[in-house]
Amino acid sequence: MGDVKDAMDSVSFENINFPIHPIPYTMMYVQWEANIIISKQLIRNLAFAFATIALVNLILIADLVVSLLVFLCVVLTILDIVGGLYFMGLTIEIVTSVQLILSVGLALDYSAHIGVTYIVTRGRERRQRTQDTLNNIGTAVFNGGFSTFLAFVLVAFSDSYVFLTFFKVNIEAI
């Protein structure tokens, strides 16, 4: 694409009332310019999302260790999704960037429910509290993940790139 822009500099319209150099425009240029910017924007947006998650977890969960574990679960889930994107042949572009930001919310939802239930579960032994937590909220979290999967599985049969990417990223998030 850089070659195209360089080639446009060599074109001139003498004796015509146009600017010195023409300004080429196609939809391909819009996508190309967007892809140049998207990596910086994605990193910034993920950083804002992670900072918000850390702050809200500390305030609402009110337990430093559980808040850090929930935050770590979210970060590792997003890292897993990015690794899965590579192996599925997807690149970082507009559709996958939007999906990554949405996946932060899905990852937070599942881990925060388990973390909060662990905090409010009574008992002294960690093993017993963990077992009670999974007995109390594990089924609900599984049902939430499974119903999300059922909602996304329908787009797997689409021919649209956006819908197929939506399916691949969200299956990786669940």
Task: Offer a concise description of the structure.
This protein has 174 residues and is an all-alpha fold. It has six helices and no strands.
Question: So what's the oligomer here?
Answer: single chain
Q: What is the H-and-E element order?
A: HHHHHH
Low-confidence stretches: none
Q: Measured on Cα atoms, how large is the radius of gyration? A: 23 Å
Q: Would you give the CATH topology? A: Multidrug efflux transporter AcrB transmembrane fold
Backbone structural class: mainly alpha
**How large is the count of helical segments?**
6
Task: Give an overview of the whole structure.
This protein has 174 residues and is mainly alpha-helical. It has one domain (38-173): Multidrug efflux transporter AcrB transmembrane domain (Multidrug efflux transporter AcrB transmembrane fold, Up-down Bundle), CATH 1.20.1640. The chain contains six helices and no strands. α2 packs parallel to α4 (94-120) and α3 (64-87) packs antiparallel against α4 (94-120). The longest helix has 35 residues, at 27-61. The radius of gyration is 23 Å and the shape is elongated. The protein starts with a helix and ends with a helix. The mean pLDDT is 84.
